[in-house]
Design goal:
Helices cover about 50% and strands about 15% of the residues. By secondary structure, it is an alpha/beta fold. Helix 1 links the parallel strand 1 and strand 2. Helix 1 packs parallel to helix 6 and helix 2 packs across helix 3.
Length: about 150
Amino acid sequence: MTYSIYLSGEIHSNWREQIQVGLDGYDLDTKVFSPVTDHEDSDNVGVDILGAEDNPFWKDHKAAKINALRTTSLIKRADFVVVRFGNKYRQWNAAFDAGLAIGLGKPLITLHAPELTHALKEIDGAALAVTETPQQIVEIIRYISQA
């Protein structure tokens, strides 16, 4: 069985690559999706496609809407969603994606350091697994792929 996985959240570390390498190492039949992780490309998509804006609010609005179209369609295609919350930056997009996944009935796995457990208790409460390392994600996918 092929599993489609959406990897959402923190973009300042190589956790996505660690998961992909782990999946490849087990030769698991997976398809991995993720948001655009280049800040400039993501922030400018609206004005690049729809035209320049004088007001930064409207520039951000255009980008947010197009990114939401992309994210929503990929989460809908996913069998489950992994959301990584990092320590350094506020990840509003990650929280949005977790809520979207829950709202769409997609199984959710969270990935974060133990010191974020209290802050993320509500999101973790909706997750089917709460992990601390990319390798734990790989092992969960390996386990469920043995069906």
